[in-house]
TrEMBL record:
Name of this chain's protein: Transcriptional regulator
Residue intervals of the HTH cro/C1-type domain: 8-63
Domain of life of the source: Bacteria
MF terms in GO: DNA binding
InterPro entries: Cro/C1-type_HTH (IPR001387), Lambda_DNA-bd_dom_sf (IPR010982)
Organism: Paenibacillus herberti
């Protein structure tokens, strides 16, 4: 799935959380480590989602709805006869 890193950053800003606070919550050593996640330079890991949701006062499902793009899939059905 594609991550909407802009929403990740905006959610943090809306909650008035500093990069260092987020880094600490995720067990990262530096604020820059978290910033690289927000910019997409480093991959957002699934193991970080519970800590992020907690810092944002959100449930995991609400967080994932905000962070992940949903790809629209067109369904073209054709009936094929199996012989």
């Amino acid at each position: 799935m594609d991550v909407n890193y802009g929403n990740l950053r905006q959610l943090r800003i809306d909650k008035r959380l500093h990069l260092h606070e987020m880094a600490t919550a995720l067990g990262l050593r530096t604020a820059g480590g978290y910033q690289r996640i927000e910019t997409g330079e480093n991959e957002l890991k699934v193991k970080h989602l519970p800590a992020i949701a907690e810092k944002f006062d959100m449930g995991i499902l609400d967080l994932t709805d905000q962070l992940f793009f949903r790809k629209k899939v067109e369904q073209n059905s054709t009936i094929k006869e199996v012989i």
